[in-house]
Amino acid sequence: MTAHALSPQAREFIEGDHHLLIGGEWVRGRGADIPIENPASETVLTTIRAASTEQLDHAVAAARAALNGLWGRMNVRDRGLLLNRFSALIERDAGIIAEIMTAELGQTLASSRGVAGSLSPALFRYYAGWTDKITGEAFDPIVGADVQQFMGLTIREPIGVVGAIIPWNASPGMMGLKLAPSLAAGCAVVLKPAELAPLCASYFARLWQEAGGPPGSLNVVHGHGATIGAAMASHDGIDKITFTGSTAVGKAIVVAAAGNLKKVTLELGGKSPFIVFPDVDVEAVARTAASWCFVASGQACIAATRVFVHADIHDRFVEALGNHTRNLIVGDPTEPSTNLGPLVSAAQKQRVAGYIASAKAEGARMVCGDEPVPAVGHYVRPAVFTEVDPAMRIAREEIFGPVMSVIRFDDEQRMLDTVNDTPFGLSGSVWTRDLERALRVARRIDAGQIGVNVHGPMSPQTPFGGNKQSGWGREFARNGLEEFLKIKAITIRIGDRP
Fold first, then answer.
1. How far apart are CA 484 and CA 474, in angstroms?
2. Which whole number is the average pLDDT over 99-104?
3. How far apart are CA 424 and CA 259, in angstroms?
4. I need a labelling partner for 171 at 20 to 30 A (CA). Which of 201, 318, 446, 498 fits?
5. How confident is the model over 317-373, as pLDDT tens digits?
6. What is the pLDDT of residues 434-466, one digit of tens each?
7. Residue 43: helix, strand or coil by DSSP?
8. Where are the beta strands (DSSP E) in 218-332?
């Protein structure tokens, strides 16, 4: 995104200071400078300064003080009203947020507008409605010799100080996933955005203050995952970590969290199957497969990267898929006609190029993907491979780039065995007009959520999360709120039994 494409408001924000928010005060980071690059132009947008570990300690202390102070004493009605005000401010500034997101991430402006103007405010508005519906239970416990009467109560309380670590892809949506339920539950949060794309988090912090968020209820610290992120995972003052990112980092967080046995929610990698039976509209479903594999230039955990196509339609499907993919426009993410922007960084581009080379070396056939891309920017053409053996790297590992593996099948059982032969279990979809078959196959896929004739159907009301090495816990819906609550049982002796 070139500088002239930015609105004056977005440019002013990006070129301004980006400090830490600790206890309601903007504080200059004491760590190293981190340049923030525009991946479309390979120019530096701005520089932020990371927090020191001492400043992280201050942020955690500020969050604890907020829990014991104004934020902790705020009644549930006012907490819900605050979240609704915050949601309205996100909607008000969605255009600016989308520009910032595209500038630092390279995602197309149309896609950024969808995340900033729809998904993110919807999550805050949804969880705002939950604040006065967090309830417990009353019951009649039997204690001891049963000669006295007791009444039992359970209450749900905020889990405490939450460390939220979000990735660089679609950060306004990721903040909705982490901040909305944790703040609705009454937790105080220390947020660490990804060092590659931290600017939207800084903008959200300003809006939280404008909405009237009490000091310390939301704190934002910048820094690299290996330093500040790791320090958060092991911090004794943090009661819970909520993290979205790679499976490898998720495993490291689990190890670090063992120090004080903090609770952990993880949304990790995926290798989502997209299963196509022969009774579909081949052209339409091929277009959909491409859309969902190459969404955000393939930088999405639910991307449809493994496409299983029945042998009866395999060749027609691959032809349609190749024709559609070749026509996708790769280029400036601010242009309305662009379908795929750049990858987030040079390192990510190199990683994806390595998988493409590996696929060719292992014998997969490239249907498309060799077409030229802009010389400047971290661009990669979307690549479709067929004749893919399920044991190949491109069929087993999360690439996080626009690379699709097409796998032919003719036997449902063997196909399902292959679908489930993966360490991941995040998402997937089944495409057929046969409802009985759709439900049978959907129930046998080991993943947290499955679509039938739809892929990646996210909504605030639908639980989302992974099985196996795709994560722990669930986000969205009531399930996402429960991840930030703890249950306390209270037993009251009310006298002898008559």
1. 11
2. 97
3. 27
4. 446
5. 999 999 999 999 999 999 999 999 999 999 999 999 999 999 999 999 999 999 999
6. 999 999 999 999 999 999 999 999 999 999 999
7. strand
8. 218-220, 240-244, 263-267, 273-276, 306-310
The residue annotated as part of the active site, out of 187, 293, 301, 368, is: 301
Mean pLDDT of 30-59: 97
Question: Cα(63)–Cα(22) distance, rounded to whole angstroms?
Answer: 8
DSSP secondary structure, 241-253, as one string: EEEES-HHHHHHH
Say if residues 62 and 23 touch (Cβ distance below 8 Å): yes
CA angle at residue 383 from 378 to 388, to 5 degrees?
Answer: 140
Q: Supply φ then ψ for residue 484, to 5 degrees.
A: -115, 15
Catalytic pick among 99, 267, 398, 475: 267
Is 301 an active-site residue? Answer: yes
Output the CA–CA distances (angstroms, integers) from residue 90 to 166, 255, 480, 493, in the order listed. 18, 35, 21, 49
Q: Where does the pLDDT of residue 5 fall: very low under 50, low under 70, confident under 90, or very high at 90 and above?
A: confident
Write the DSSP assignment of 404-456 as a string of letters. Answer: EEEEEES-HHHHHHHHH-SSEESEEEEE-S-HHHHHHHHHHS-SSEEEES-S-
**What is the rounded distance in angstroms from the CA atom of residue 279 to the CA atom of residue 93?**
44
Beta bridge partners of 300: none
Q: Determine the Cα–Cα distance for residues 103 and 333; give it in Å rounded to an integer.
A: 9
Q: Of 191, 6, 245, which Cα lies nearest the Cα of 103?
A: 6
Which of 302, 276, 279 is closest to 287 using CA atoms? Answer: 276
Neighbours of 419 (CB within 10 A): 24
Q: How many CA atoms lie within 13 A of 187 on its CB side?
A: 30
Counted residue by residue, the chain has a size of 498
Cβ pair 300, 454 in contact under 8 A = no
DSSP state of 386: E
Give the number of other Cβ atoms within 10 Å of residue 145's Cβ.
6
Domains defined along the chain, listed by start: 3-268+472-486 (3.40.605.10), 273-459 (3.40.309.10)
Selection from 17, 214, 143, 185 nearest residue 495 by Cα: 143
0.85 exceeded by pTM: yes
- Residue 343 in 3-state DSSP? coil
Q: How far apart are CA 11 and CA 203, in angstroms?
A: 12
Any idea what the Cα angle at residue 44 is, between residues 249 and 244, rounded to 5°? Answer: 20
State yes or no: is 267 an active-site residue.
yes
Tell me the per-residue pLDDT of 152-183, one tens digit each, with 9 for 90 and over. 999 999 999 999 999 999 999 999 999 999 99
